[in-house]
Design brief:
This protein is of the alpha/beta class. Helix content is 40%, strand content 22%. It has a seven-stranded mixed sheet with strand order 3-2-1-4-5-7-6, with helices on both faces.
Length: 210
């Protein structure tokens, strides 16, 4: 198991019990994402964690495969699906770069995960291959502020190395919005929506078409 997987495994129980942070922003993200989904879609979510987003969206699509590389996260998500009676969802321990994960999928969800990836070009190339022609990659990614950002960003940059040294935080890749968009277009994606709502939100919501 990788060091990153061990980190997420260790915090899985606490993560599952934590309330959604920035609830208004989360609901806006979910509303936009729902608008792109159809009842016939086969959907893949990478970095699904304990499955809260996947379980909320599964009733809108034909089938949803929720993946995470942390086994404890996947275990909790699968148990939540059983408890809630959601039957059109599979929880799978998988890294999107592993060849065993096969498509095609109509939609790939990558919410709050791309900034945690070591080799983003390789991941985006893999996701491009997993999508059907015209399929969508829907992502929300922590980015550097485009102008002067909220104070929490600067506090995070100051405290993050300390937390990482203590094993209390994962590795993060702070990209600019332009860098993220370029990474997507370099792998053949066409960006059809790129927004930051609310304006000072640090996470960029992007929908890109294969």
């Amino acid at each position: 198991m990788t060091q990153s997987a061990k980190f997420w495994d260790k915090i899985a129980e606490r993560y599952a019990q934590s309330p959604v942070r920035f609830a208004e922003s989360y609901q806006q993200t979910m509303a936009r994402t729902r608008s792109y989904l159809t009842a016939t879609d086969r959907v893949l979510e990478i970095g699904a964690g304990t499955g809260s987003t996947a379980l909320e969206l599964a009733p809108l699509v034909a089938h949803l495969t929720a993946t995470d590389f942390a086994p404890q996260m996947v275990k909790i998500g699968a148990e939540k699906a059983r408890t809630q009676g959601v039957t059109n969802i599979d929880f799978v321990v998988a890294d999107a770069l592993v060849p065993d994960l096969t498509g095609p999928f109509d939609v790939v969800l990558a919410h709050n995960v791309l900034h945690l990836v070591d080799d983003l070009p390789a991941l985006l190339a893999r996701l491009h291959d997993l999508l059907t022609p015209g399929g969508l990659l829907i992502s929300k990614t922590l980015c550097r502020p485009q102008r002067r950002g909220p104070l929490i960003y600067y506090a995070l940059r100051l405290l993050l190395p300390i937390a990482q040294a203590l094993g209390k935080a994962p590795a993060l890749n702070f990209m600019s919005v332009k860098q993220l968009e370029t990474a997507l277009t370099d792998q053949g994606f066409e960006i059809i929506e790129s927004t930051t709502t609310p304006a000072k939100e640090l996470r960029r919501y992007i929908v890109a078409r294969r």
